[in-house]
Amino acid sequence: MKTIPLQLVILELENGRRGVFFGTPLVADDETESECQVENVWFSNINQLPDNIDLSMLRHIALEQFLSQNKPKH
To answer: What is the DSSP track for 20-58?
Structure first.
């Protein structure tokens, strides 16, 4: 079995709804707070997944979707 670094982020809205999001860690222990400010938040709209998908494949699908929707516009 292949292992990958994983980080879960749990967000809670004022109305009590919660969401759990996963990804690879973005912040290393040696980075300062000023180096790690959130600049943008994007949510994927992946609705259907193949039966045999693993986290690495899902991460790839989400990144591809993000990159295709956030290409620089000329």
So the answer is: EEEE-----TT--GGG---------------TT--HHHH
Q: How far apart are CA 15 and CA 29, in angstroms?
A: 32
The H or E element spanning position 59 is helix 55-69
Q: Are 55 and 6 in contact (CB under 8 A)?
A: yes
Please tell me whether the overall predicted TM-score, pTM, comes out greater than 0.85 for this model: no
Query: What does the pLDDT look like over 21-68, one tens digit per residue?
Result: 888 788 777 877 777 787 888 888 888 888 998 888 888 888 888 888
Cα–Cα distance for residue pair 74/33, rounded to 1 Å? 33
Q: Which helix (DSSP H) or strand (DSSP E) does residue 67 occupy?
A: helix 55-69
